[in-house]
Amino acid sequence: MVALVYLIPAALLLGGFGLVCFLWALKTGQFEDLDGAAYRALHDSHDDRYKDDRLD
């Protein structure tokens, strides 16, 4: 029972911290363009600066 004195406030603090982080992410627009990152990862940008010549 003594452990609950420590575990319940710790759980509430961690949950509150998670909620604050989630609300901050909503406020700063982190969830505005969910598909954009997926398309940018697949898009061929034709950038040859990082091309490895050994693969030719």
From TrEMBL:
The chain crosses the membrane at residues 6-26. The keyword Transmembrane helix applies. Keywords: Membrane, Transmembrane, Transmembrane helix. InterPro entries: Cyt_oxidase_maturation_cbb3. Pfam families: FixS. The keyword NAD does not apply. NCBIfam families: ccoS. This is Cbb3-type cytochrome oxidase assembly protein CcoS. It comes from Thalassobaculum fulvum. The lineage of its organism: Bacteria, Pseudomonadati, Pseudomonadota, Alphaproteobacteria, Rhodospirillales.
